[in-house]
């Protein structure tokens, strides 16, 4: 049977991590956790459940995922987040892959995102295909701070398999806002590094565009209260990112 290394990056995930790890039973032959110096019991839970834990300061999601990949023992790496769970259908697909020879260098599967316990089928959140299982000899994570992804060293088209990753993004609107604001800070840093000059008006234009894209073009209106909340936060976090970038550039000049 083929072997799979699973990787998880964590920071203060004591409420979620056990459920994530439990969904990896019989799938992962080792679980590598890279923790960003959690102040709760995340590390202790991971170690008690048999994971190998390494501590490393967060330097962007892409870099952190690639570092975790570098610690793995087996060629095929399954990357999962602490707030994600493999659905029963996805577990079955992965078990079938393990029993047969891996015929491809990369595999993708849909991710079903939950907002405060509600599955969201629009807002650009579904099917939200993710490349999460790959042969590390031919692929690696790019080093982007946000919106990181697996890139292949040659012309590889990942194969889609059945089943979803269940992504429990937040338990409350406040938690979602906090997470989005963290992503906005990383996006602002990327904007500064790219040399974009936001000016005074562009942040608001980008914020409105983000709202309209989410609520109208991506069908957020069809997701009811959840879709409305997600779209409003998309406006706020985009505006925050572009304003922060403008402020940073102004300070540097």
Task: Describe this structure as you would to a colleague.
With 253 residues, the chain is an alpha/beta fold. It has seven helices and eleven strands. Strands 1, 2, 3, 4, 5, 6, 7, 8 and 11 form a nine-stranded mixed sheet that branches. α5 runs parallel beside α7 (224-252) and α6 (202-217) runs antiparallel to α7 (224-252). The N and C termini lie far apart (59 Å). The mean pLDDT is 94.
Q: Count all strands and give the number.
A: 11
Terminal Cα span: 59 Å
Our estimate of the beta-strand percent is 15-25%
Biggest pleated-sheet summary:
9 strands, mixed
What is the string of SSEs from the N terminus onward? Answer: EHEHEHEEHEEEEEEHHH
Structural category: alpha/beta
- What Rg do the Cα atoms give? 19 Å
Which regions contain 5 or more consecutive residues with pLDDT less than 50? none
- The general outline is globular
Overall pLDDT metric: 94
Number of helices: 7
Helix content: 40-55%
Protein traits:
nine-stranded mixed sheet, two-stranded antiparallel ribbon, 7 helices, 253 residues, alpha/beta
How are the elements arranged and paired?
Layout (H helix, E strand, L loop, with lengths): L3 E7 L6 H6 L7 E6 L6 H7 L3 E4 L5 H10 L5 E4 L4 E3 L1 H12 L6 E10 L2 E2 L10 E6 L3 E3 L8 E3 L6 E12 L2 H22 L7 H16 L6 H29 L1
Parallel strand pairs: 1-2, 1-4, 2-3, 6-11
Antiparallel strand pairs: 4-8, 5-11, 6-7, 6-8, 9-10
Helix pairs in contact: 5-7, 6-7
In short:
The protein has 253 residues and is α/β, with parallel strands linked by helices.
């Amino acid at each position: 049977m083929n072997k799979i290394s699973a990787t998880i990056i964590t920071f203060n995930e004591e409420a979620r991590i056990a459920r994530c790890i439990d969904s990896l039973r019989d799938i992962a032959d080792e679980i590598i956790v890279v923790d960003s110096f959690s102040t709760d019991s995340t590390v202790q839970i991971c170690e008690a459940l048999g994971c190998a834990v390494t501590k490393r300061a967060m330097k962007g999601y892409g870099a952190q995922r690639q570092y975790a990949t570098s610690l793995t023992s087996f060629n095929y790496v399954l990357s999962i987040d602490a707030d994600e769970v493999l659905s029963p259908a996805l577990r079955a697909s992965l078990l079938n892959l393990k029993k047969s020879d891996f015929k491809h260098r990369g595999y993708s599967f849909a991710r079903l995102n939950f907002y405060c316990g509600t599955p969201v089928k629009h807002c650009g959140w579904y099917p939200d295909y993710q490349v999460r299982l790959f042969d590390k000899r031919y692929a690696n994570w790019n080093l982007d701070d946000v919106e990181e992804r697996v890139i292949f060293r040659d012309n590889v088209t990942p194969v889609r398999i059945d089943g979803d990753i269940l992504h429990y993004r937040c338990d409350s609107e406040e938690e979602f806002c906090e997470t989005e604001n963290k992503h906005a800070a990383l996006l602002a840093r990327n904007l500064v590094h790219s040399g974009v000059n936001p000016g005074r008006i562009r942040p608001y234009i980008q914020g409105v565009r983000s709202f309209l894209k989410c609520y109208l073009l991506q069908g957020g209106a069809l997701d009811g209260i959840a879709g409305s909340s997600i779209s409003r936060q998309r406006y706020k976090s985009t505006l925050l990112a572009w304003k922060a970038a403008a402020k940073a550039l102004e300070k540097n000049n």
